[in-house]
Write a structure and sequence with these properties.
The chain is an alpha/beta fold. Helix content is about 50%, strand content about 10%. A hairpin with a 2-residue loop joins strand 12 and strand 13. Helix 5 runs antiparallel to helix 6, helix 8 packs antiparallel against helix 9 and helix 24 crosses helix 25.
């Protein structure tokens, strides 16, 4: 959950949701000053002036160093040892602005004013409300140091200005009746602030109470003359004159002016979470941190990659649900269909069009070109607080235009390929579940009583599913569809290499289809054909690992060509790395490779082939000769 610092009310620091005990005025002061400038350097001189009060003590600098060291130790005890860094002449707190309530308040207020200027009044209203809801009382209420009094007064002035900006917005939307109690209370508390007095006069006038509006002016004038010795300012005097002459500009005369400030449409497009989600504690923590500890200058982007069926989408959706409440402007979700059987991958323009419509643009308002749509998307997201899930991505080129512009946004990308060219701070490689975690997932997906009755069969099912959540879900779905079926029956079917992929199909779920979809990610001719043929060759080989020289020997290609083909298969996760220059096929992929190899080798001749002759695929003689020497793989090898 990260580190959170709050001082819009009593001072509070939380680490992963738990209160962090921080004692000592100077420690509080240093951390608060760094937090108010999160992501920016603060000079040691400024810290000494603000927190030590221009101390001339020769040890002040050393005291500052000790305070910073103590803060680092405290944060390190909660795994945040790298948050305070030393920079030239001072220190810097490397924490996203959104994690400090005072800076988040400022950010939200700025976003609200921008939305209002762009005519997005409903969104501006929601942002103003969220900003003001961060206040829990007087800022730094329990800190008595002189620097805290100054900061408290500064933040309070920001709060009042933002509150009054929000009241202006609501008055512009015709909300004057509902505003009267709040404005009356506000002017009673802040008797000499002229702006809310003018707002109260306008609300009373629009509520058909002009004499009371004039009474507010006269009461304000009396207070200012008696207590300050000055007359009201120009804005309040102009309001009085406008009320006296019943100026029509004070009325909301057109329906267009009477804009409803009802709740804006906030997208919530995530697919439902998986109730049986199991394990992945480290991966969940990494992804949550990546999405919530954003840079103050750019959106947070996290990429998850891994082979077919390993649970990339399930992890992304699970984590997105857990952090969705941090994104005030909603959650967008797009399946980019890079590996959807029977569907081509979405183009960047198609995906952008969907995102823009989710953000409120009508179909006719979406720009007709990729560049135009991308520019509009950047503009709409520049001040928003959005979470975007880009699921099943093809490559970096597809997703690059889909990354929002605003620093308050976050993006999670799932793909079989690693998004290396996006220049991200980190990539999460999702691996297969261990046997214990796989068994736990299978138990949660299956009736516990059936697993308890046939524990050995359950263990065998988990083993043959090879640690892939998709395979385990398919197995559980088959059992759920046949409640009278023994687990041992499915275990026997999975134990047979020739029937295993058939057993891992149910309704719209299929391990075979999931693996087959990887071929649409391969490059065009001739590289794609080389990769497809190499995959078939590997299906005939019984080696645990393979090298480019192995493939070269069977195909007759130069070794560099064989290596290129293997690397294309590695990109789409149809082979895995087994060390420098070595590749291997996990169990289910290996079965699929052998299935394709047999189908390609013994494929019926095309119609144009002369009768009695069969087309011979490239390398056929070498592969067939080798295959005669290959026995059926041992079960221990097949389940790898």
């Amino acid at each position: 959950m990260g580190l959170e610092i709050k001082f819009l009310g009593p001072w509070e620091v939380r680490a992963d949701g738990e209160p962090l005990r921080l004692t000592g005025e100077r420690r509080v002061g240093v951390l608060a000053k760094l937090a108010l400038n999160a992501g920016r350097p603060v000079s040691a001189e400024e810290l000494l002036i603000q927190v030590w009060g221009r101390s001339t003590a020769t040890t002040a600098g050393k005291q500052l160093h000790i305070v910073v060291s103590k803060l680092r130790s405290l944060l390190a005890s909660h795994r945040y040892d790298d948050l305070i860094t030393t920079v030239s002449g001072g220190y810097q707190l490397n924490l996203a602005r959104e994690r400090v309530d005072a800076t988040l308040f400022t950010l939200l207020a700025e976003q609200a004013r921008t939305a209002q200027a762009q005519g997005e009044l409903a969104r501006a209203d929601a942002l103003f409300q969220r900003a003001l809801s961060l206040w829990r009382g007087e800022a730094l209420a329990d800190v008595t140091a002189s620097w805290a009094e100054f900061e408290s007064a500064r933040l309070e002035e920001q709060r009042l200005t933002t509150l009054e900006d929000h009241m202006d917005l609501r008055l512009a939307g015709g909300d004057h009746y509902a505003l009267l109690p709040a404005l009356t209370a506000h002017t009673a508390t802040h008797r000499l602030r002229e702006r809310p007095r003018a707002q109260l006069m306008l609300a009373l006038y629009r509520a058909s109470r002009p004499s009371e509006a004039l009474g507010v002016f006269h009461e304000t004038r009396r207070l200012m003359v008696e207590e300050l010795g000055i007359e009201p300012g120009a804005a309040l005097s102009q309001m009085q004159q406008a009320v006296l002459r019943r100026d029509p500009t004070l009325d909301l005369v057109s329906p267009a002016q009477r804009t409803s400030l009802g709740r804006p449409v906030i997208p919530a497009e995530l697919p439902s979470d998986t109730p049986a989600f199991t394990a992945r504690a480290g991966e969940i923590a990494w992804l949550r941190r990546s999405l919530t500890d954003a840079s103050p200058q750019s959106p947070a982007v996290a990429a998850v990659h891994g082979p077919a069926g390993v649970g990339k989408s399930a992890l992304a959706v699970h984590v997105a649900h857990s952090v969705a409440d941090r994104f005030a402007d909603g959650v967008l979700y797009v399946d980019l269909h890079a590996v959807t059987p029977g569907l081509p991958p979405l183009s960047s323009f198609e995906a952008l069009s969907r995102l823009l419509r989710s953000l409120g643009l009508g179909r006719s308002a979406v720009p007709p070109t990729l560049d135009g749509a991308a520019a509009r998307y950047r503009s709409l997201t520049s001040t928003r607080n959005l979470l975007v899930v880009l699921d099943n991505a093809l490559d970096s080129a597809q997703v690059r235009p889909l990354i929002p512009a605003g620093p308050g946004c976050a993006v999670v990308i799932t793909s079989r390929q690693i998004m290396a060219s996006l220049d991200l701070p980190g990539h999460l490689r999702l691996t297969r579940l261990g046997h214990a975690d796989g068994a736990e997932l299978f138990t949660r997906l299956t009736e516990p009583g059936r697993v308890a009755t046939e524990p050995q069969a359950a263990r065998q099912i988990v083993r043959w599913c090879g640690g892939l959540p998709l395979a385990l879900r398919i197995a559980a779905a088959r059992l759920a569809a046949r409640p009278d079926r023994a687990l041992a029956q499915l275990a026997r079917q999975l134990a047979d290499p020739e029937r295993r992929l058939d057993a891992l199909e149910h309704a719209d779920l299929s391990m075979r289809d999931s693996l087959a979809a990887a071929f649409q990610q391969l490059p065009g001719e001739p590289a794609g054909s080389d990769a497809v043929h190499t995959f078939s060759v590997l299906g005939f080989l019984d080696n645990l690992t393979h090298t480019a020289s192995d493939v070269s020997a069977f195909t007759g290609w130069p070794e560099h060509r064989a290596e290129a083909a293997l690397n294309h298969l590695l990109d789409v996760r149809l082979v895995e790395s087994a060390g420098p220059g070595r590749y291997w096929l996990p169990g289910l992929i290996r079965l699929y490779a052998r299935e394709r190899a047999v189908r390609e080798t013994f494929r019926p001749a095309p119609a144009l082939t002369p009768p009695g002759r069969r087309m011979t695929p490239p390398g056929h003689g070498r592969v067939r000769a080798a295959s005669r020497r290959i026995l059926a793989p041992a079960e221990a090898t097949a389940c790898r």
